[in-house]
Amino acid sequence: MPDIKHFDPDATLETVVRLFWRQGVASTGIQDVVSATGLNRSSLYATFGGKQELYLAALRRYLEQRSQPIFRSLAGDERGLPAVSEFFAGLIEARCSGEYARWGCMVSNAHAGVENSDPDVRAVLDQHHRELREAMYAALVTAERQGQLAPVTDPDASADLLALLAYGVNLRSRAGADAATLRKTVTAALDSLGVTAAA
Q1: What region does 149 belong to: left with phi over 0, alpha with psi -120 to 50, or beta?
Q2: Torsion angle in degrees (nearest 10) through CA of 87, 88, 94, 97
């Protein structure tokens, strides 16, 4: 007979995402996962594998459900620079207030943790970075086409800068930086590109 699961693997994985996101993988033991999900170890192992496999599944879910929709929205936004400004405003809002305040970004946290030495984790981090950078580049190309960029602004190099700025916002917010300081930093970075990011 097929194995019948008496729990929702999707809901369980979402709980695990929040656990790893908030605490980090190094600080989270399998007993923490058991306590958070209410499942026993054998059910977790049978469904997801060990802790590393579970973390990898959670990281992929975070990318697919939290990061990629935002990247697609930014890349497809025809407003150009106002879309970039709005991206950072939303990022700062999410990182500094609400349910996930001070959690940072699960992917950025992984960049700074020991887990990034795992090749499978590294592949997810590289995919996230590539898609973030491509979204920034698409928005900047739109801005350039609309005459919003200063002549000296290179969309390619600026996409790298803005991607790194997003990581900085994520990490600094987790460390306790306040929203006003982060907004000031973002404004200075955009101004340094010679752009006007007014909506």
Answers
A1: beta
A2: -140
Between the alpha carbon of residue 87 and those of residues 64, 67, 69, 155, the distances in Å are 17, 12, 12, 17
In this prediction, the residues of the chain whose per-residue pLDDT falls under 50 are 1-4, 196-199
> What does DSSP assign to residue 3?
P
Q: Is residue 115 part of a domain?
A: yes
What is the spatial distance between Cα 68 and Cα 62, in angstroms, rounded to a whole number?
9
Tens of pLDDT, residues 129-149: 999 999 999 999 999 999 999
Position 73 in a domain: yes
Residue 5 has a pLDDT of 56
Do 103 and 175 meet the contact criterion of CB atoms below 8 Å apart?
A: no
pTM for this entry: 0.91
User: How many whole angstroms separate alpha carbon 17 and alpha carbon 63?
Assistant: 11
Q: What is the CATH number of the domain that holds 138?
A: 1.10.357.10
Do the Cβ atoms of 119 and 171 come closer than 8 Å?
no
Q: Which domain holds residue 64?
A: 59-192
Is residue 89 within 8 A of residue 198, CB to CB? The reply is: no
Within-domain flag for 36: no
Within a domain: 180: yes
How many domains is the chain built from? 1
What is the per-residue pLDDT for 191?
Answer: 83
Half-sphere exposure of 96 (CA within 13 A, CB side): 17
